[in-house]
Write a structure and sequence with these properties.
The chain is built from eight helices and nine strands. By secondary structure, the chain is α/β, with parallel strands linked by helices. Strand 8 and strand 9 form a beta hairpin. The chain binds adenine.
């Protein structure tokens, strides 16, 4: 999968060089291309924002640099083009897995300030996505969340032992608790059932624990 991320703050994306995503990029399983929108501004001072028509606080990203940047990165509109925005569709597991399955190229546009001129969005964007009901100072952190979540569905990014099948959300329940060595820590023992090796009992225990944590933290998931 190739993901082009369009931003005024490319330096923020160094976080994607680490850990599982960084390794997948190194191995060429995943291609992440961070593009500086400012380089496409035709303004002599590379300005990319201006005051909103009609008044109001803050600045709006001008359409020209955004439009030209998207055209340069995806001239034939082969990619699914996404704008990260609190006004977008809420990101959930089903949306992540569907996007990963159906697209091998994505363009993710990050807005800043009070957003992007609507004409650039109307001309270029296929879908708006929000990572939750709160407003961030820009779309960059949201784009990293989306990239990380998508990458986990790209074949070979996760080790075969790790899987997206059993984890929180994929089966309508939050995930059961995990334990590792030592068997006792600060006087607290690992639950006996996990040490006895009876696979059926372990499955039952994990299922019960998954229900308990879902009732406690996300009862709305059980109503669904
Ligand atoms: N940009 C600002 N807030 C956002 C959010 N909640 N989701 C996606 N992009 C955003």
């Amino acid at each position: 999968m190739r993901i082009d991320i369009l931003t005024l703050f490319p330096e923020m994306f160094s976080a994607l060089n680490s850990s599982i995503i960084g390794k997948a990029v190194e191995k060429g399983i995943l291609e992440i291309n961070v593009v500086d929108i400012r380089e496409y501004s035709t303004d002599p001072h590379k300005k990319c924002d201006d005051y909103p028509f009609g008044g109001g606080v803050g600045m709006v990203m001008t359409p020209q640099p955004v439009y030209d940047c998207i055209q340069a990165v995806d001239p034939d509109h082969k990619a699914k083009r996404i704008y990260m925005s609190p006004k977008g569709k809420i990101l959930k597991t089903a949306l992540v897995s569907e996007m990963a399955k159906n697209n091998d190229r994505l363009v993710i546009l990050c807005g800043h300030y009070e957003g992007v001129d609507q004409r650039a969005l109307d001309l270029c964007i296929d879908e708006e996505i929000s990572i939750g009901d709160y407003v961030l100072t820009g779309g960059e952190l949201a784009a990293m969340v989306l990239t990380d979540a998508l990458a986990r569905y790209v074949p070979e990014v996760l080790h075969s032992a790790e899987s997206t099948d059993e984890e929180s959300f994929s089966q309508g329940l939050l995930e059961y608790p995990q334990y590792t060595r030592p068997r006792e820590f600060k006087g607290i023992s690992v639950p006996d059932v996990l040490l006895k090796g009876n696979h059926a009992d372990i499955v039952d225990w994990r299922n019960e624990e998954a229900i308990k944590i879902t009732v406690k933290n996300r009862p709305d998931m059980l109503e669904d």
